[in-house]
Amino acid sequence: MDLFTSPLLERLASARHVLIAGGGGGFDVFSGLPLYFRLRALGKTVTLANLSFTRLEALECERPVPGVFRVDASTEGRGYYFPEGWLARWFERRGEQVPLYCFEQTGMAPLREAYAALHAHLGFDAVVLVDGGTDILMRGDEVGLGTPQEDIASLGAVHALPVRDKLVVCLGFGVDTHHGVCHAHFLEAVAALSKEGGYLGVTALLEAMPEVALYKEAVGYVCEQMSRSPSIVSLSVVSALEGDYGDVHRTQRTQGSTLWINPLMSMYWAFDLTPVARRCLYLDALKDTRTPWEMNLIIETFRASLSIRPWKDIPV
Question: Which Pfam families match (predicted)?
């Protein structure tokens, strides 16, 4: 490794088939699109997946393995919250047929089984779990965890895979303030992971990059189609890419709150997944959960037994 090396891309240099999976549901898979386009340009096979908030059981689409739905441009779901379907249609508009493999919202155990089955089906040899935001790094005793259920279920599921390269990539530093996350605690987590050798640095996404231009185009198209529920995270990242700063709003969904659009929001923060999973204080307690409600109960019980660390302002 040297000054001109990207540790993130170096970790994926020998991979033949990379699964880029949205860990927290909704638009999280969009945060992996710049990396998706770059890895494809390097000649790698890249597959997109996402933990989905869509009513997958109501869709007419292929189910290649239990717990996984293969969504493409022909999958009808216009009456639902369905970013995966609209993303597939965006690819079709560009002349490409790109499926997305969607996981149901479950507890950690079924999600772990679904990931294992998809691995056996596709044979990918590396996984990048992408988080729109930074709350996946919260270990459990912070004042705010954001929306941990989906992120930690995905973290535990990927951690169990027999794959050599398993990474976590966060995009959207600052956006989770909207969900009560203290970013001083995020930076503390980065420092702790750096001490363990698990921090792979930051990679700036710049508007002039072709991969970023495609990401912006995809976000713009899908958010326009889903005008009643566009992505707060994705639109905030686009604002940062375009040089906006401060309390800048692109959707009515954020009206009444104060946003902090900032240059760090458009950077990839990359980590080795194994130490991220090892650092999570309550991951093991969730390993046998079957439903999201069971996960919520265990998290609430766990938190009630802790001394919660209070909010810290970043002293700059």
Answer: DUF1152
